[in-house]
Amino acid sequence: MSVPPSVPRPPLRVSSVHAGLITALVLALSFGAMLALTFSMQNDVIARDRDHQMAAVSQAITAALDGAGRFALTQAETSARQRAVARALAAGDRAALTELTAAPYAYLKSQGVPVFGFHAADMTYLLRLHLPDKFGDDLTKFRQMVLAANKTRRSQVGLEIGVAGTFVRGIAVINDGDRFVGTVEAGLNLEPILEQVKTLTNADIAVVLSQSLAELPPRRPGDKGEQFGDLIALASTDTPLFTGLLRDGAIRLARTREITPHRIGGETGAILVQPLIDFSGRMIGNIAAVKSFPSHGAALQRTRIELIAAALIGTVLAFVAFLVSARMLKPRDEAQA
């Protein structure tokens, strides 16, 4: 039997429990959306902080290399200004040069300056104090710093590969009166420079050469640095760390500065890779930096746990408050009915 149109239908009643559940669900979805947005914003803040700190490491590396070059040049210029050294170089007197500079070189070698030598005006290597039996070789084809100093008659600073290896070098011009007689160079080891950057930034640093880009000869037993494909780990502040990263492919040759997140020993971290440029402007490899950010992971986890807990508590309290309100209003509604 159908209900006459004039008779109103009884209204649908929703129980207070159902209404509370619906309210709690809406609140939970709202809190979930807010948490997702908050987490995304946290990730962005942490990524910006990470990139900012790694950019500071990059700047520290550049500054340290520049400072090392100036130090090397200062040591070279100290010898270049001695008249006795200029006369001995002009005369091609290797014995006199050795006698004049052997003691200063012994001290410099103990201070991380293993390369010290004199180039004649014809751009042959007259005397290597670090390799005294190796002399007379033509430098015009592979030592661009010597060529530049010879042509411009001006001091030069930079990173360059030579017979003895890869060093930060400073080359000073030597004149005997008004006559140009040659140049003198000092070269610094890379390891102390990297350690200096590590002290300043708390990041581990490595110099990685590319055998193909640097046009290095085939490797021989005893050559410095372990090789991983085309890459050679020349110097670093943590050999096991960079050996593992190179072996796993976490560090690859990069032609622009790259910063990528990476877990270091179970902690949040990042890897910076930037081109390694020699004096001539040629890319010969990369400088890599690795830094962990334990505070990032701990702070992020703590904050997220607190936010999730707050959201859950808020949802439960809202649900309970709605139920209490509904029970208080129910007798009044029944009385009015």
Automatic annotation (TrEMBL):
TM regions (residue ranges): 20-40, 307-329
Superkingdom assignment: Bacteria
InterPro entries reported for this sequence: dCache_3 (IPR029150), Sensor-like_sf (IPR029151)
Keyword annotations of the record: Kinase, Membrane, Transferase, Transmembrane, Transmembrane helix
Pfam families xref list: dCache_3 (PF14827)
Transmembrane helix recorded as keyword: yes
Coiled-coil residue windows: none
Listed GO MF terms: kinase activity
Domain Double Cache residue range list: 51-287
Protein name: Two-component sensor kinase
Protein's organism: Rhodopseudomonas thermotolerans
